[in-house]
Design goal:
The complex is a heterodimer of chains A (about 325) and B (about 210). Chain A is mainly alpha-helical and about 325 residues long. Chain A contains 14 helices and four strands. With about 210 residues, chain B is mainly alpha-helical. Chain B has one domain: Up-down Bundle (Fumarate Reductase Cytochrome B subunit), CATH 1.20.950.20. Classes of the chains: A mainly alpha (about 325), B mainly alpha (about 210).
């Protein structure tokens, strides 16, 4: 219940914080050319409907041509793909059979095909010059060292649903929305025990209770991503994937609330490289939030020291004349 | 001839003492947060304890401020803060010249303290600005930082929190400067300790 309330609060906060333009449904291909997303722009729309007519529904009809029998069956939730989400995702331009075997065109789907391994991210994105700048190989190394890799059956897809995942931080125009999107990926399991226990035997952990030590928890949940504290920083990749055991998560406030804020190496890494402005230390954080200790203003700090020193000088002169008068 | 009369009732002295303690805590904890560093080269408090102390002290200060305003209304103490516009600028200049020059020449205080006049014109102006402008701004902006969801998201591409925080820190610094000057001017009695003693026993003394 607390997670639901927190989710509503976080959503409301993110909603209130929305001031930037909506993210345009545009993405770039590896060569940098812009491609308009959406079902109407997919050249595989008709082909994909062969799959979506069942896999975009809660029910499907099982038919037997020989006996002429048919029965309405409930589609397993794991096999449902939201059509609209798919055509707004990163993989929107693909045909289903680009990743799933052509044999799936037959129904019932052949068991041998269903038992085949799925592609992993590296199968397409790894060891390819077109994606070299994103360091997918290093991402895999980080993932393999993370706690998630210790879980049997866990894969990239458990966080990055290939049918709905969108690139976020790299193209973000509204950081609050990006944070919400990213944190919801974590909360999909860590805020929903039904999903969590599909992958782990660990007892339910209430994230609201386990983060009670955080002052102004709602502001933290809305202002930073879970991975800011729960991963180790890697300078060469944009989003850290080395999820740490909970005992190693950041608990020292000054790791973020200081002029050397780790947020500059995590949440604001992309923008931080782009700009430094208005004399604010870590000024890029100022655009979206205010992190006490990390966003102090250099000029105001200097001015305050000068004013205080000037006052002390005046008072000392005053004291001098008082003593002299006596 | 020596003058001694009761000028500071118990409620004012109690409020003043609490206010002074809270101000010191808030300044020290505020500095500790503002200049927080990763290697714990903190000023006076660790970041975590500074946040906790700052929040608690701020709530008590708010309650104490409400008590102060109500006290001024109910007891009539507010009349000492009333500024009469007639020749006020001249009075300010006169008081400033006394502090900067006249007192070293042995001149008489231009606005001596009496049962009817607790503050000189400079005190009046600075106290009114500090207590009825500075402190409300500090309290309201502080609550804005404590409950950031009530602030505007962004304004001209900068977070509403950032504006509020700069306002809060700047006003905190101005009131800190006020406090330093206030403490210094309190050494200007007959003896450096005379006016401090007045705020303990409530009696104003002059020779």
């Amino acid at each position: 219940m607390k997670v639901i309330i927190l989710g509503i609060v976080v959503t409301l906060l993110a909603f209130l914080g929305i001031t930037g333009p909506d993210t345009a449904p545009v993405m770039q291909d590896p060569e940098g050319a812009e491609m308009l997303k959406g079902a109407e722009n997919s050249i595989y729309y008709e082909d994909n409907e062969t799959c979506f007519k069942c896999h975009a529904q809660d029910f499907y009809t099982l038919e037997d041509a020989e006996s002429g029998l048919s029965q309405k069956r409930v589609m397993c939730q794991n096999y449902i793909v939201d059509r609209d989400e798919y055509y707004q995702s990163n993989h929107w331009s693909f045909a289903c059979t680009d990743c799933h075997s052509w044999e799936f065109s037959n129904f019932p789907h052949p068991t041998a095909e269903r038992l085949q391994d799925h592609f992993s991210c590296l199968d397409c994105h790894g060891y390819d010059e077109a994606y070299a700048q994103y360091h997918f190989e290093e991402i895999e190394e980080e993932y393999n060292a993370s706690t998630h890799a210790e879980i049997e059956g866990f894969s990239c897809w458990d966080c990055h649903n290939p049918h709905s995942y969108e690139i976020n931080i790299r193209t973000s125009t509204n950081l609050k929305e990006t944070i919400l999107y990213d944190n919801n990926i974590c909360l999909e399991c860590h805020g929903n025990y039904s999903n969590f226990r599909l992958l782990s035997d660990i007892d339910e952990v209430d994230v609201v209770v386990s983060h009670e030590w955080l002052p102004n928890q709602v502001a933290h949940f809305a202002g930073v991503r879970c991975i800011e504290c729960h991963t180790s920083i890697n300078d060469s990749i944009l989003v850290a994937h080395h999820i740490l055991p909970k005992e190693q998560a950041v608990r020292n406030c000054t790791e973020c609330h200081s002029s050397d804020s780790r947020l500059m190496a995590t949440l604001y890494k992309f923008e931080a490289k782009e700009q430094r402005k208005r004399g604010f230390l870590n000024g890029v954080i100022v655009n979206n939030s205010y992190v006490i200790g990390a966003t102090r203003n250099y000029f105001l700090n200097v001015a305050s020291v000068v004013i205080f020193a000037g006052l002390m000088l005046v008072l000392m002169i005053h004291v001098f004349f008082r003593i002299k008068k006596k | 001839m020596a003058k001694r009369f009761y000028l500071y009732p118990v409620w004012i002295r109690s409020w003043h003492l609490i206010n002074a303690i809270l101000f010191i805590i808030l300044i020290l904890t505020g500095l500790s947060m503002h200049y927080a560093s990763m290697d714990n080269r903190y000023f006076f408090f660790t970041f975590e304890s500074a946040v906790a102390w700052h929040n608690v002290a701020a709530f008590i200060l708010t309650a104490s401020y409400v008590f102060y305003v109500l006290g001024n209304i109910v007891t009539g103490n507010g009349k000492y803060y009333r500024i009469k516009r007639k020749k006020f600028m001249q009075k300010l200049v006169k008081q400033s010249v006394y502090y900067g020059y006249g007192m070293f020449k042995g001149e008489e205080h231009p606005f001596p303290v009496s049962e009817r006049r607790k503050f000189n014109p400079l005190q009046k102006l600075s106290y009114v600005l500090a207590m009825y402008v500075g402190l409300p701004v500090l309290i309201i902006s502080g609550f804005g930082l404590l409950f950031p969801e009530i602030l505007v998201g962004q304004f001209f591409g900068i977070s509403g929190l950032a504006y509020t925080s700069v306002l809060h820190a700047t006003m905190g610094f101005i009131l800190f400067i006020f406090m330093v000057i206030h403490i210094y001017t309190c050494t200007l009695g007959d003896k450096p300790s005379t006016l401090f003693k007045s705020m303990i026993d409530g009696y104003h003394e002059e020779h």
